[in-house]
Amino acid sequence: MKIKLISTSDVHGYLAPTDYSRRDNVAPFGLARVASVIRQQTKHDNDNVWPIVIDNGDYVQGSPLTYFIAKRHRATAPLYSQLANCNQVAAGVFGNHEFNYGLDYLDLCESSRHYPMLAANIHDDQNRALFAKPYTILERAGVKVAILGLTTQFVAHWEQPRNIAGLHFADVVDTAKHWVPKLRQLADVVVVAYHGGIECDPLTGHPTERQNGENRGYAMLAEVPGIDALITGHQHRQLATSIKGVPVTQPGMRGTNVGLITLTFERGQITDRHADLLTVANAPADPALMQRIAPINHAMEDWLDTPLGQINGNMLVHDHLEARLHNHPYLNFINQVEMAATGTDIAATALFNDDVPGLKPHVTMREVMNSYVYPNKLAVETVSGADLRGALERCASYFILKDGQVQVNPAFLKPKLRHYVYDIYSGIDYRFDLTKPFGQRVVQLDYHGQPVQPDQQLTVTLNHYRAGGGGNYPMYQTDKIERQLSTDMTVLIADYFAEHPVVTASQPTNFTVSY
Length: 515
What we know:
The protein is of the alpha/beta class and 515 residues long. Helices cover 26% and strands 30% of the residues.
């Protein structure tokens, strides 16, 4: 028997093949294309070929459509589990972004499912059914396959407390150590589906990122014997490899690929194992899926074209490295919105990725949603001058010099693109000297024209991810947060335009870099 473990991960609500940049955009990814690949892989379903489809999380958040459903058409949320049923999903795993809109909404998203959600390392004080199953065991022709579901334990560091009230996220390696030996007694094949990634080089085992617990896939395979296949996600990497003899997949993001692990099971044991990624770029959009999403998709496209305001000047981002190096009117505008919403006079924001277009002269909701791509809320945090300097040193490490040219530090590019970790600040005057070593690059830090002192108390507006230390900013902590806003940033931007129908783009001068 060939057991085919077919996996999706980090689809992030890209259901149709579009990036939503234009109403007529056609993109080489999306769940509709994924559905066609899954159909192809499951059509020879018999006792000799057993396809098992697993969704590995970050499914219901991340696109303009997911925001539109969550905030304006909540009753449509069961669509996500209905589509998963259509794709013959046999088990689901929670991603960290599943919690962004709260537990009641998550329960609604999964309300039509025909499959179990697996949450082995999520402990729920309220014993909700949604988090009750750590694993599932499937059986065919006398062969049993156990699937253990795990979610990155770092959720509690990022998510707003009210969205995960009563939930506790245990260490994934400790959880696997507990469950895998038990599952080996109950099943012939043990699969781990982990919404988390690989923290070390698959071949050498050398760390490729900070070992903070966010991604622990390599450690799991190094410390937990008995795992026959590992499905990963979260990092948005494209991986089909083997680690310590165990096949591992990670299919990227937005439905770019489908993960496939093929296990040949003969005479009571696995005799062959192989990992692949199946691109969906040339697969047609599945007509049945497109028909299901068409009504809400059309309504969302109309909403995206809603006019909001006007820009005098230029807020389009053409060179993203240049914008991060010298600041940009778009970033300055986002910080203005943050400060207006919270009443502080220091704020920080990130140019999240190199697809951020900025804002056209006639601003619509589409431009806002395509530029501010996360459902961030704001937090006001009081920190010391030393904390602020430490955060700026973290930002300064984003750049390196190579042959006299400024480049992005590879640590922010691999194993995962993390442009969103670099922030630009308003309300302070600061300067980086890139010729100096990491940790000594902030050569100016002034507030209201005076040098910031280490023990000086400063109030800063941050997104809730950064305010909790996300992105390896340990100087920012939840116990330093004074207050949080409950409104998403995209709504705050729209509200700002309602009060200021015409906004003038201005190039900020508070931040400079020498090299």
